[in-house]
Amino acid sequence: MAVKKNLRKINAGKVKIFKIANRRGYAGLCLNNLTEGNTTYQVYQRMEKAVKRRGYELPQITADKSKRLIVSKI
Question: Residue ranges per domain, the chain?
Fold first, then answer.
């Protein structure tokens, strides 16, 4: 039987999503994880999985709210 991990909660503001230059799509950075996707929501969903592997948990958000995480500069 697998042991359930105790995940630490972090807020969605830690995720920085930006448009990839000279490419189609977006990328996201959070806790030294980099994910890519065609939409901001897809980037966020992939980031949830990536940080979960490191013992953190991101809250569920809607596609509209994922657009608010876009930053112009990192």
Answer: 26-74
